[in-house]
Specification:
392 residues; binds zinc ion; alpha/beta; Rossmann fold; binds 5,6-dihydroxy-NADP; two-stranded antiparallel sheet; 2 domains
Length: 392
């Protein structure tokens, strides 16, 4: 069995009115000049941005603002943030938003402690050794970036490559999570988030180690709860308990808990295949995952009948450990994603993957034929093509 390391340094403040603790959290950081980073409109519209700025003023902490983070956050804005941060002498960053804002903040944090090109960390050319600290105020339950070691950035300056950088250095110092902030989410974003949370758990459920039953049981109980809560928020966006379930699940599905005792990692092929899609077609990450997972699972399940059937046993109480149970499990996930309003084929998302685009996608995905994907089931370029073909 591989050794697992579980490291979650993020201080979590969870529940109604969690924002009241922002001042105290910033004092612990000894923050003197803060960059407040946010997205398009939602933080302004909800009044949250104003509340955050008032708290900073009340605590005598000076601040500068940088909005405009787009979903699938762009390198060009990260560069702007680094330049602004250097000019202003920023010593802490508040990420007010979801995965995109938090990831952009993490990238700015890296860049403020690095003299060369921040993309080096995303292209694999260098490993980050330091970063200006980030504290998240979470407004969407989805990516789990508030507790993860990851940041994913899209290079809009050359090639639209979407790449991640994993390092403990970027983990948020604190995360303020008030489920009420997610009431204003459009249903599509709530559904994308629900799928992403499920997928962060599934990527780790499909691992290459021996595994332990406790982690399987926690993982599958969580998936059940996330499916139920995802359905509830579609009916009633102001269902506090369901929103709270999703928000906490977003964090613990991606903070490493779901990989303890297995190979300490998981497969991650679906995420890699999705990142290439959202880099190229700019679709929402959760929607891309709802398309890729059923296709990937259908392509490989016959080699892993027991594992897929076990998933069905634990999540849906299906009996049996045969091929039919495994397939029924995959079909059920697909129909749940569909019922949440997610696309489950590329064409549902308006993506036409012709041969030219397919080749381009595969070149990017394989780094020009220099990498394969997956530890649970290793895929080569031709296998990846077949998965995308099923997804069409
Ligand atoms: O820009 P605004 O106006 O704020 O609107 C956002 C955005 O359009 C909106 N939104 C967020 N909170 C809201 C709200 N609208 C109304 N009310 C609220 N309370 O939701 C939209 C999506 O936001 P985004 O931050 O993009 O969502 P998400 O958290 O799903 O993040 C997606 C990004 O995270 C990456 C994805 O690839 C994608 O780029 N991921 C990051 C990971 C990590 N760092 O650990 C892991 C994931 O696997 C994922 O790859
Ligand atoms: Zn994800």
């Amino acid at each position: 069995m591989e050794i697992s390391r579980y490291y979650t340094p993020t201080r979590v403040v969870f529940g109604k009115n969690a924002l009241s603790e922002l001042g105290g959290e910033l004092k612990k950081e000894n923050a003197k000049k803060v960059l407040v980073h946010f997205g398009g409109q939602s933080a302004k519209k909800s009044g949250l941005l104003d509340k955050v700025l008032s708290i900073l003023d009340e605590n005598g902490i000076s601040h500068v603002e940088l909005g405009g983070v787009k979903p699938n956050p762009r390198l060009s804005l990260v560069r702007e943030g680094i330049a602004l941060g250097k000019k202003e002498g920023i010593d802490f960053i508040i990420a007010l938003g979801g995965g995109s804002v938090i990831d952009s903040s993490k990238a700015i944090g890296y860049g403020l402690k690095y003299e060369k090109d921040v993309w080096d960390f995303y292209s694999g050319k260098a490993k980050p050794e330091g970063a200006v600290g980030v504290g998240a105020i979470l407004t969407i339950a989805a990516a789990g970036s508030e507790m993860s070691d990851s940041s994913v950035i899209t290079n809009d300056e050359s090639g639209w490559l979407k790449r991640g950088c994993n390092s403990d250095v970027c983990r948020c110092h604190f995360a303020i999570m008030d489920p009420e902030y997610t009431y204003t989410l459009p249903p599509y974003q709530s559904a994308c988030g629900t799928v992403d949370i499920i997928m962060h758990t599934l990527e780790r459920f499909f691992h290459s180690g021996d595994g332990i039953s406790l982690t399987d049981n926690i993982a599958t109980a969580m998936i059940k709860s996330v499916i139920e809560s995802g359905r509830k928020v579609m009916e009633d966006p102001d269902d506090y308990e369901a929103r709270a379930n999703l928000m906490w699940a977003s964090s613990i599905s991606h903070n490493g808990l779901m990989q303890v005792g297995n190979d300490n990692r998981g497969d991650w092929t679906c995420h890699q295949m999705e990142h290439e899609l959202s880099g190229m077609f700019d679709i929402a990450h959760g929607a891309g995952l709802a398309i890729v997972f059923p296709a990937w699972a259908r392509y490989i399940y016959k080699d892993h009948v027991e594992r897929f059937a076990k998933l069905g046993n634990l999540v849906f109480s299906y009996e049996g450990n045969d091929e039919a149970t495994a397939l029924k499990t995959i079909e059920t996930f697909e129909s749940i994603f569909h019922s949440l309003g997610m696309p489950v084929h590329l064409k549902d998302a308006g993506i036409e993957l012709d041969e030219k685009k397919m080749e381009e996608l595969l070149d990017k995905l394989t780094n020009n034929n220099t990498r394969t994907l997956g530890v649970f089931h290793n895929l080569k370029r031709d296998d990846m093509r077949k998965v995308y073909e099923i997804a069409r």
